[in-house]
Amino acid sequence: xxxxxxxxxxxxxxxxxxxxxxxxxxxxxxxxxxxxxxxxxxxxxxxxxxxxxxxxxxxxxxxxxxxxxxxxxxxxxxxxxxxxxxxxxxxxxxxxxxxxxx
Length: 102
What we know:
There is one protein chain. Helix content is 19%, strand content 33%. The chain is of the alpha+beta class and 102 residues long. Strands 1-2-3-5-6 form a five-stranded mixed β-sheet, with helices on one face. Strand 5 (68-69) and strand 6 (72-73) form a beta hairpin. The relative contact order is 0.17.
């Protein structure tokens, strides 16, 4: 695993497929980086760290605010359709708000 990894912070979540990094959730969801295309069937499984943040038994996060997805405005991301199938979400004036799991 010689790929560059994000800083080890409590607010960072990662998802792997084997040794391949497929998702980074940074700053408690403020920034999300998918390393697979939105049409890849693994995207739903890759979003498992987001589901866990919302549903964990100890101190779940009530709302997650995505400001960027792959360094672009989250409100116009190609990943919104896939995420919308799994999570209750809406867009406000500057971000995507995830409110829970479907």
